[in-house]
Amino acid sequence: MNSLDYYRGTVVACRYVIPPRLRSSSRRELMDVVKAAVVEVISKQPMLQVGLRGADSNKPVWIQLGSIDLREHIEWRHLEDLEDLETSFRSVMESELDIQFQRIDSQPGWRLLVLNQQKPAADSLEILFTYNHPNADGTSGVIFHKDLLQSLNAAQEQQSMHGGPILALSEDVLRLPPPPEQWSRLPLSAPFVLKSAWDEYRPPVFRMTPTLAHWAPIVTSPCKTRVREFSIDNNLLTNVLTACRKHNTTITGLLHSLALVSFASHIDEAIAPAFEGGTPINLRNVLLPKHPEYPGLTLKETMGNYVTMMSHKFGAALVAQIRSRIDPRDTADSLSPELVNLMWDNAAKVRKEIRSRLDEGVKNDQVGLMKLVDDWRAQLKGKAKKPRRLSWSVTNVGVIEGRCASPSAAQDKSWSIRRAQLGVSAEVPGPALFISALSVAGETLTISCSWQEGVINVMVVERIAADLQKWLVQIGP
Predict the structure, then answer these.
(1) Is residue 331 over pLDDT 80?
(2) Residues 29, 128: Cα–Cα separation, whole Å
């Protein structure tokens, strides 16, 4: 999708709390500490050390790089103060999501933007890790920051080992983490293959499916991403999680159900009688934990592309039922008791669908179908000419442990993470709206809504984001 400019990249941004001992240090010292920690992460993760050759061909290949010019991949931007950071962060996130990686055959597909406050003794800095999706999935961005936090809290003698801007990489043959189809067999049944082929290639006359997102036609350009985000504090999040457990669901199921109510509220029945939403599934949770040919590799600690997608259909009868219970005079600050009950029922249904999908493992998964496609560029171009399938997707990459787990590191002298946000680029033939969730243990949950400019009216997205926020407050007071 990148070579067609149907997708740009992914960002995982974390706000790091600087240890007191470094707050009064020189800018150069702080920059050296961060650079050294990044180098440690690069040495640990093979997918940060490769370029991609033949990206616009049918057989692209990873190539091992001999060196990385860190000046091309780590940028420091110095801001006046925290207020300046807060006001500019959204535009920074949008611009990072719009980055097109160049020279990917000779450079790795990632970059780091560090936002640093110029005021004396500033206690935090924002680190945005932006990367090319072929290199890594959403969970990989979380793995990167977990590794970076660990490296930042490593011994000081390790943090002063690397001085120059050119990082020479190992000359040993790099062993990349294998793709899912090499890690495990991905069995396909004949009925699944036939159904998938029918869904993909059936004539237009048979595509009158009410869940299709005709209200958000596919446009191929510009592939520019817009973002809206909000956060909820740990107390509210704890209450929401308790409510989810009580109703046999999860944050992911809840966000799907709240999105359904909001979409039904703001999009007219004439153009959207029903909806379909998607959930990315982390294959690390269903693939075999170990592989005899890769004895030292642990997938849950490894950056790579181990993601698939499942969908949830919300039929016309259900959507009509929701709409009938919405007060036409307003979209109230709180949901009615009837809508709350209906919302929880649907949230539990989504959670059950996800659980069933995970229980199936890798059998009949769309990743297994990928080998049957000869020309992915033609496939994606064809998909862009069809009606959009998904109105939204919910990506929940979990929780970052924001404090150092090492018993040797004193908590008041260590780096920590205060806030984290996942940003997903617009995807031309993909969901009209991406709802992405990422939390920091004991801190906040940040929910980001991203979409392609021109596909959804910005006021509609702002209303949907506002609905999600106020209804989460209602659920977990």
Answers:
(1) no
(2) 20
Q: Check whether residue 191 and residue 151 sit in a common domain.
A: no
On whether residue 182 sits in a domain, the answer given is: no
Q: Which two tokens stand for residue 341?
A: 């009950």
State the CATH number of the domain containing residue 159: 3.30.559.10
Pairing between β-strand 110-117 and β-strand 74-79 as defined by DSSP bridges:
parallel
Q: Could you give the CA distance from residue 45 to residue 298 in angstroms, rounded to a whole number?
A: 12
Q: DSSP of 124-162, one letter per residue?
A: EEEEEEEE-TTT--HHHHHHHHHHHHHHHTS-TTGGGS-
Taking each helix axis from N to C end, the angle separating 337-359 and 251-266, rounded to the nearest 10 degrees, works out to 130
Domain that holds residue 62: 10-165
pTM summary value: 0.94
Q: Are 391 and 216 in contact (CB under 8 A)?
A: yes
For 469, other C-beta atoms within 10 Å of its C-beta total 16
**Distance from C-alpha of 308 to C-alpha of 291, rounded to nearest angstrom:** 20
Residue count of the chain, please give it.
477
The span from the first CA to the last CA of the chain, in angstroms, equals 42
Q: Are residues 228 and 142 in the same domain?
A: no
Q: Is 238 in a helix, a strand, or coil?
A: helix
Residues 323-342 have a mean pLDDT of: 80
Asked whether residue 326 carries a pLDDT value surpassing 90, the answer given is: no
Number of domain units in the chain:
2
pLDDT in tens, 350-374: 999 999 999 998 888 888 888 888 7
DSSP secondary structure letter of residue 297: -
> What CATH code is carried by the domain that includes residue 307?
3.30.559.30
Strands (E), 321-402: 392-400
> Are 90 and 227 contacting, i.e. CB atoms less than 8 angstroms apart?
yes
